[in-house]
Amino acid sequence: MTALEFTYALDQVSPTLRPFALKLTKDHEDANDLVQETMLKAFTNREKFSEGTNLKAWLYTIMKNTFITNYQRLVRRNTFIDTTDNYHFLNSSSDHVTYNNAYTDFAMEDIYAAIDKLQEVYREPFMLHYKGFKYHEIAERLKVPIGTVKNRIHIARKELKSLLKVYAPAEA
């Protein structure tokens, strides 16, 4: 098979590679890269293809092996070896970052302190709503109209927002 014939055959089969690449990578850009790399490897190794065999299966095998090799390379790149007496493999991927809860603990203390500063008339419906009660359930429990419940929760939120403004996101 000449290079021109092989290129034509690759061109005919290439549209079927993208869905398989997308299934492997689960990302459009990575899938495009994988298809391109597969096509390049297939063309550069065209002499290894046996004419009369299934070109599509050969390309799928190249794609699958390329994907596995790239994945293993990525994993190896994020692994360090500790050379102390006991060897330890440390995965350095940023997906596995552990944070302590100090900031969260301080924030929760401030939130509860701010809630305690609310007048009882606002704090009680707010806390019931926070615990998952619906407006009509709070109204029944407190024996006040539903509009009053909504108003008190709104005022409580507004008050808490001003008390906790140090936690507000910075504006651009």
Automatic annotation (TrEMBL):
Belongs to the sigma-70 factor family. ECF subfamily. InterPro entries: RNA_pol_sigma-70-like (IPR039425), RNA_pol_sigma-70_dom (IPR014284), RNA_pol_sigma70_r2 (IPR007627), RNA_pol_sigma70_r4_t2 (IPR013249), RNA_pol_sigma_r2 (IPR013325), RNA_pol_sigma_r3/r4-like (IPR013324), WH-like_DNA-bd_sf (IPR036388). Signal peptide: none annotated. CDD domains: Sigma70_r4. Coiled coil: none annotated. Residues 109-160 form the RNA polymerase sigma factor 70 region 4 type domain. It comes from Algivirga pacifica. This is RNA polymerase sigma factor. NCBIfam families: sigma70-ECF. Keywords: Sigma factor, Transcription, Transcription regulation. PANTHER family: RNA POLYMERASE ECF-TYPE SIGMA FACTO, RNA POLYMERASE SIGMA FACTOR RFAY-RELATED. The keyword Transcription applies. The keyword Protein transport does not apply. It comes from the Bacteria. Residues 12-74 form the RNA polymerase sigma-70 region domain.
